[in-house]
Structures are given as C-alpha cells and as structure tokens.
Amino acid sequence: MLFKKSHLNEVLETTSESMDVFVPAIVDGTSRFALYGEQGEVTEPNFQLQNTKIPPKGLLFPSTEKLYTWGKGPDGTFIESALETPRPFVAFGVRPCDAAAIERMDQVFLSKGYIDEFYQAKRNALTIVAIACPRTSDACFCDSMGQSPNAAPEADILLLEGNDAFEVRVQTERGQALADTWKPFLEEGGIDRQPIECTTKVSMEGVAEKLHGMFDSPLWDEVSTACLTCGSCTFICPTCHCFDLSQARKKEENARFRCWDSCMFKDYTLMAGNHNPREQKRNRVRQRFMHKLCFFEERYGEPLCVGCGRCLVDCPASMDITAIIDRVNAEPAQKGEDHA
Hints:
The protein folds into two domains: 2-185, no CATH class; 207-330, no CATH class. Helix content is 27%, strand content 21%. It has helices at residues 8-16, 96-110, 117-125, 173-180, 207-212, 219-224, 232-236, 281-300, 310-314, 321-330; strands at residues 2-4, 20-27, 30-35, 64-73, 76-81, 89-94, 126-131, 157-161, 165-170, 243-250, 253-260. The strands form two sheets. The protein has a seven-stranded mixed β-sheet. Strands 5-4-11-10 form a four-stranded antiparallel β-sheet, with no helix packed on it. It is globular, with a radius of gyration of 22 Å. The mean pLDDT is 93.
C-alpha cells in the first residue's frame, strides 16, 4: 500500500481527529516532536530533518512530570496520585534509531519485574509511525549498533519514502487500526527504494566483555580531560533516563515531581553524609560509557546506544563515542572484576 505525498496533510488531519499527533518540527529554533494541528504547536511538519535535536523520548518520559500531591484537607492528610489516562497519540515521523530507543526505554520502565505506571500509561496510548531514513549523516552509525536506517521493527507502521509517495508497511495490530483510517488515501503499490547504510562504522563484537577489564584503565583519565560535564549528551540522548525527584509547595498542597537528571553532574551520586562515589570527572565519564556499552547489554542483551549520532554532533568538546569504541577495541584484553 502507499499514499501520495500530496495526501500527507490529509492523512495527518484524519489521524488528528481521533488522536493527538506529534510530528518533527522546528519550534523556537530547536527541532523536536511538536503537537500538530490548528490547536497544537505547528501546522507544518518537517520530515526532511535527519533527526530532531530533542528526541521523542519526552513524549513518554517528560523532562518534568508530576507524580503525586499531598497536603492537609478537611478530612486530614491526603495523598493523591497525579497519574492520568492520556488521550491516544501518535509519534509520526520517528526515525528507526529513535524507534529502537523507545524499545530500550520499554525495557527499563516495563520489564525485569518493574512497571512504571506513569510511563506505562503513555506507552499504552502511543502509536509509532516511523519513516525510514532517506539518507544518513556522517554522525549516524545505527547499523553498527544492531539497527538499520531502512527498517524499524519496533514501530507500528513503517513508511518508506519515494519521490512522490510513501509506501505503508503495517507491522502491528495497533498500526493496522491506524492504517484503516487512512483507507480513503491508500492505493495498491509500492516504491522502488534502494537500501542505504551508514558510512560511519564501529565494531561492537566483544566490547562489553573487554570493558569489564578496563574499569581502572588510564583510558578514562585521557578521554575525560576534554569533557565539560555539561550534561548535553545525556539530555539529547534518546535512551538516557536518569532522573531526580523534587517537590514544590503551593499554599496547603505539596507536589512531588520527577525531572531529568544526568550522570555527568557531580551531585547526581551525592549521598546523605556527603559521600560521593563519582566525585571525580573520570568516574562519571567512565560510568556513562560503561553503562551504554557494557552494563545495559549484560542486563538486557543489547547496548543502550542506538547510534543516532546526536552526541557526536552536539557535544561542545567534540567527544566521540565511536572513537572511544575504537579505542576500546584497540586495547589488549584484560581480566576485570564485576563493577556493574
């Protein structure tokens, strides 16, 4: 099946009748997923963006999220959850790396005996429409991390872009339900699209195992020298999920919030009694890369990095995770202890 590009706005309008639609767009100078429609933030999506600077993870894991309130009422002290059932929504135009990133987030918040009800409520309401990448940039290396710019098996619908049409590949029942609403615009056929691949390549074979022996390696002193510990890499990363809890008070009501945090910040691991196991910058840099490339893979079977390349582009110190992977591969194997 396919629909002509001339029908794209009609497809979006039809979808928005029953769901909130979030599309890639540039808002206030920053590219991110924004609510589409006359009552939304944008009426013109930008599907030519290679990737949005701010990843779509914020649709499921907001940068600031109220968890519950408490206070004193007529009947005494009360505690009320802020959990709500969101309106069904679709992320339309997600790139394959970001679809894979959402699957990584699912593992963190919905598996291993732990269910985060706030994440779960939004995830149950989400339909993912991915668009295969028409090109790759020099920063992209998703196919080295187990993904492909040509496919997004984690999405409900995959669109393949041609010159004047999008081929529609339904991949889940949820995707079929959405595609059924597009029937007035669908026609038989497909597009002739040549597969593409990333030009930047790294080898992940044996990296997790080798990193176990590099916990005390001088490599971390070397690579951390340039790091500014600004946290930019963690906030634009589609899989980073560190958070802090804070609270605010308004009159007699108190609220507890979950806010994005960063393992690159010195105070992130500061404990009561003023002990900090990662006070040194080298230890925080080491933790970031060990978690991405070693610890997460040991727990969930795949690296936490999806090769989107955002951190390569936006790091003010030009730190490059692909160069660090190459350095790890060049190091001789050492036997190490379990520090996960």
